[in-house]
Amino acid sequence: MTIASLLAKKGPKVVTVQPEQTIRQALALLAEHNIGALVVVDPESRPIGILSERDVVRAAVRDEAVFTKTVSALMTRDVILGLPQDDLESVGRTMTDKRIRHLPVVDQRRLVGIISIGDVVKAQRDLYRGEVENLQMELTEEHGRPTAR
Amino acid sequence: MTRPGTEAQPLRVAIVGAGPAGFYATDQLFRTPGLVVEVDMYDRVPTPYGLVRAGVAPDHQKIKAVTAAFDKVAANPAFRFFGGVELGRHLSVDDLRAHYHMVLYTTGAQTDRRMGIPGEDLQRSHAATEFVAWYNGHPDYRDLTFDLSQERAAVVGVGNVAADVARILSRTPEELAATDIADYALEALSASRIREVYVLGRRGPAQAAFTNPEVRELGELAGADVSAQPEEVEPDELTRQVLERAPDRATQKKIEIIKEYARRTPTGKPRRLVMRFLVSPVELRDDGTGAVGGMRLVKNRLYATATGTLQPKATDQVEDLPVGLVFRSVGYRGVPVPGVPFNDDWGVILNAKGRVLDPQTKHPLVGQYTAGWIKRGPTGVIGTNKPDAAETVAGMIEDLARDIHLRPADPSPAAVERLIRERQPQYLSYQDWLRLDEIETRRGRETGKPRVKFTRVKDMLAALGRA
Fold this sequence. Notes:
Chain A is of the alpha+beta class. Chain A has helices at residues 4-8, 23-33, 53-62, 71-74, 88-97, 117-143, and strands at 16-17, 37-41, 47-52, 102-107, 110-116.
């Protein structure tokens, strides 16, 4: 299973921010959309960084004036980008190993979506649930009686 | 007007597509505490069950047992089925909006992805899905023909559908005769002259999508010796690293099974099933008559993407495979539903967690939902549609609680039934289907099969005394 199927039911909306916007503006976006990270994009919509709530929290501890700083001052530049054809399994492993919570996904360098570790975990859980459901059906058939739920 | 969902005004839901996603969603709606709901389910074909009837392989009867659960759902008096009624032909989205509070699209992934290589449109090059629909007796595909006089066939892809196609091509007539394969397909396959079936994967065994039971079955065929090439099944360095870092029993088992195939020597069975890995077709060759006369393959090696996914990269090594029949099984795509926003990037209805979105505003459209493959793309097994449908139904219930739903001019069950009788008088009800089911299984008992399917709509109508 590829991560394209996670993006397929997320709609086309990726909340992005420009590097020169302020942290106050970025926080407003995070709050408005109830999300944990923003993809920072250049004028061609290509991702150049990611700004997570944790980046802001860390900076706020050190500096009261965090709200007026720019996104580019706080964003993480070294971003791992996913591709729609990437396998769910390896994406899950990489996100867990590297402690990444949000993965921007690009196609021909164009941002096409973002998936969170929560999306990955839910997709994996649904896959397992589906397999259990199938096995239960087959057992029901073999023994001619309903299985326990 | 009172909020729908009560005895006074039941929530009226139309579900378009009678496959697993539609039935799981119906079940979920019926199980919602305190909700009074009526479901009308539509399907383009007269019979229910979607791919369980027309997709699941005829020699995989066990998995078809899920239909018993669907029948139980359909036995609810608040459920009606309108088989043979097509959206965009007999009914429009506006018709549905005029009669229901909510509409749920569960139309599946009805077309295949193309390989995008020269020669793909030659004769004897087919979509695996068409072959599957043909041998399963789908009325729209029953008149297709496949040239089984060829001696060598290739199945491109290593998912479960590819495994199904390879297996059905390799089965003996005796094995097939005990299944509910369409009678004309049994006849054609019994006369098949195919001697070699190649199954082609772009990546290695560790990355192949087919599941272990499917792989194991390929090694247990009565009439075909399975084989693989040792150098293609041995995990490469990158795969070994992944398996060392994150040992996964199922994958290791899959590699073991396939490595064992590579060690086998032919036992003289009439057919050979050859599994190939790390190869991609780059061209189908014309035999001079406009039909497939061969296939050029390029050998691949794997590389890791930023997230650690191992993907194939073509080398400069090529090979010619002398096949005369090709089935591509490299993925599926949804087909747009007339009047419903479509997301062309992913081949699904434009949606967020099952809520259909307005293409301009990207906000949910009132009262329109989707579930199953047309929502998330073609992934997972039949059971995966259960949690998927549950997610969508949760959204429907949430919206209902916020009084977000369509305001149909006439939500009465009688009004829409009148409309359908006018537009498609030949529709089948669930009662009609249960009668057909009984006839099909009776015909099967007489010949030692699970059932003998009706494959023409006119035969179905005749059997019901309506022709």
